[in-house]
Amino acid sequence: MNVTKNVEVMDTTLNKLLVICTLLLLLSLNLPSIVAVPALRIVYTNFGWFSITDIMLIIVSILLLFYYLFFSKPSGTFDRGMVILFFILTSILNLNGGRDRDLFFYFIRMFPMLFLGRLFVKNNQLKVVLSMIKGMSFLQILIILYSVFITPLGIERVGTSSLFWVQSNGINDLGRVMGTIGHPLVLAVFLLPGIITWFYDIVYKKKMTSLVGFALATYCIFLTFTRGTWLVLAITISFMILDSGIFKQLYLFLKGLHPSRKKIVIFSSIPIMIIAIFLTTPIIQAIVTRLSMTTMEDGSVFHRLEMFSWTVRHVTNNLDILFLGNGMGNTGSFLRNNPPSTYFFVIDNQYLTFLFEYGIFGFISIMSIFFLSIYRSYIVKERRIIFFILMALIMNAFTFELVNWYKVAIPLWLFIGLAIAPATMKETEP
């Protein structure tokens, strides 16, 4: 009896430690890159300098390993199927000549978060994770508002890197905000899980206090002037409104069948707030001006379109690349030796990068993981919020290498872990 009680105490203690370390890990993503701020370097290894985030990942990995060795084990057919997919993908990545440093960080940033997400579902801690995500996002929002309205952060651009480069968006020479993330597009995607979670609270849980977080996050994403993320956010929010059944409630209300008045107030407050912001500020004009630049003369649009033909050409002309890929992390050097007409040495599309670096077998494996995660998070009703977040992140991956930016890749793998976990007794599964 005492042994059982001691095991339960250790289980609870270890779980609390994992929650605390995960919170610190997610908050650490708000720190600037060690490339931009060398003072944040912690320790040097054969794989390069480690950041605070990397140290936290290692701590989480050790705690997880201990937990799974003594307190838990994988279960369920679906779970085993996902393990097989990850094994296939990992084997391909080890065979295709990827850079050791990229492979190492791939492992320590992906696998711990996958198993961490699974553990949180097992312990019925999805709400805890979502609270962490909101805290992570709100901290970045405060940093952005400080840099916009009080004083700039003063982090200079790093060499030829796009980190902390105050780009001109052509709208009154206003720079695009980057917070401490270092790139406007990545910052916008970094804020997506938070804004979707706040909107979910408003529409599904009737939490009016979440309007504050939603409004501030919306404003910050607007300040990034990232067209792709604007579109993704609009699609995701529209889908959430349709899925929530609010239109049905509004119809019943107008027909005099008197559904919950609270729902109608919530539904009405959102468009009223958005319309008021549009009418009383120059935001609408800025958005129209920014969207009007989306033409073939726009360098980023032209480059992304050209990279489709560039990738297909080089993949089909080389059987090694076609089947096993060019190796993780080798795209940059290959682009420099075989540059596109734009001379941008990045593909700017995660799926084309998967195909080029992982080959057709690796591409099928990773896409299966993505699709199964989307499917799983949708059919388990209690995880519908994870479905919306994954949908937004995966759509945004058409515009940049999502997995290569660890500040958004770490949350992505956590959400995939939450999605693929076996259903618990408290969850509804068809």
Question: What's the structural blueprint in terms of helices and strands?
Answer:
Elements (H helix, E strand, L loop, with lengths): L1 H27 L14 E3 L2 E3 L1 H19 L6 H19 L4 H23 L3 H24 L34 H22 L4 H14 L3 H18 L1 H9 L6 H20 L2 H9 L7 H18 L2 H6 L6 H7 L12 H30 L4 H13 L9 H15 L10
Antiparallel strand pairs: 1-2
Task: Describe the structure concisely.
Helices cover 68% and strands 1% of the residues. It has 430 residues and is mostly helical. The chain has a domain at 1-73.
How is this structure best described in words?
The chain has 430 residues and is an all-alpha fold. It has a domain of 73 residues. Helices cover 68% and strands 1% of the residues. The protein is built from 17 helices and 2 strands. A two-stranded antiparallel ribbon has the order 1-2. It is globular, with a radius of gyration of 22 Å.
Count of DSSP helices? 17
Q: Write down the oligomeric state.
A: single chain
Summarize the main sheet. 2 strands, antiparallel
Going across the biggest sheet, name each strand in turn.
1-2
Reading the helices and strands in chain order gives HEEHHHHHHHHHHHHHHHH
Rg on CA atoms, Å: 22 Å
N-to-C CA distance: 38 Å
3D shape: globular
- Poorly predicted parts: none
Mean pLDDT: 80
- Fraction of residues in β-strands: under 5%
Number of E-type strands: 2
Query: What structural category characterises the helix and strand content?
Result: mainly alpha
Helix content: 55-70%
Core attributes:
single chain; 430 residues; mainly alpha; 17 helices
